[in-house]
Predict the 3D structure of the following.
Amino acid sequence: MDKKLKISPGTKVAVMGLGVSGWAAVRYALHQKAEVFISDIRSEEKFAKEEGFVDMEGIHLEIGEHTSEFLGQADIVIVSPGISTVTPLMDELHQKGVAVAGELAFTSANVDKPIVAITGTNGKTTVTKLIGELLRGAGKRVFVGGNIGTSLFDYFLDPHEIDLLVLEVSSFQLERAGDFSPDVAILLNVSPDHLDRHGSLQEYRKTKMKIFSCQKEGDMAIINGDDPECTKFPENLLSEIVRFGADEKFVAGISGTDVVLYPGGESEKYPLASTLLNSQVSVCNSAPAILAARHLGCTREQIQSGLNGFSPLEHRMEFVHELGGVKFYNDSKATNTGAVVAALDQLEGKVILIAGGRDKGDDYTLLKPSVSEKVEMLVAIGESSDLLEEALFGSVNIVKAASMKDAVQKAAEGANPGDSVLLSPACASFDMFTGYDHRGRAFKEEVRALNNSGQLEGVL
């Protein structure tokens, strides 16, 4: 345990960035009777408008910038995930002897219960939610949080009546994870994402691998055996490595819509054909969830019951409408090329693809094989539309749209009965929307408006 990360009465705690995790950190620090410093880069006007107040009694406040003079007063600086930790400011704080950490680094001082941690480029939230549901179905009391939208600091405020924690962890969080050591760590896949932050796929993968680096003997590392990027482990890994994927030699083998476990010779089959997890991607997501749940004491019957009752999450290959023989799918959560390729693989027939948004440094030429094979027309939106057009020129007919309404209308006009219209952006949403969920809802609203206008006849 890093004693420097224990927050006690009188500890000077600074919080950089007031997002979900930032506010949770403030609440916890105040609960521990710490002296709290808040540093937020927004202007005073914007901060006041978005947070509702500026004058916080008993809290030191820095608005409009992050400075070493202000933050250097603290014993501990808690960095929000969205803030890069590779900056001159961070170097200055280290030189001053200030402990700089993200929320995961506080687990050793505050958590004495088993932790399941899930990371990967795609599928993290689904697998996190699914594991939580499987464990709850077996009667376990579970905290589900992390990058999923509920901060670990919320758990620290009330750790009672919880048997174990299931955490979605991002590459941003793993940058400042300290000695974070989950009992079960899952790496789902690695494909280019957040390269504007990490610089290269190699550095991004190395950051993801930090989920395993502090595991101990007796811990479990669950990896996607079909993904070569998932096999490049840190040196001296102590945990047991368990693979899932299409190879029947893996501990969790995927066969069609079945997941088959091989616990020492006698197999266990988990059929998913009659569940809402019967797609190629969902079956692949179910395999590590089943492995984790089985390892943590769930019975085969409890797991199958949980799989049967699980509903896929919104904005992830979500079927919206069928209008005039054209099916519309909302995959707004697909914010990288790997997710778009996976989405296209699930659809039969020709696809009208709506893609674009705020660029994250991804290589859009990686879309070429799938787009050439599956996509009839690409409707490009947002700031990255020119980048998409340049990367995919000659591979597909490309049109540009000025808004989501314009995009849906152009996609509908270009679609024929039997086609699918797919929103799968390969980009962040913050150029036009407040988040991927806002983007997905806008898409669904425009599809419903299309239906109500009578431009395409169809049924739900």
Summary: Residues 436-453 form the longest helix (18 residues). The mean pLDDT is 92. The radius of gyration is 23 Å.
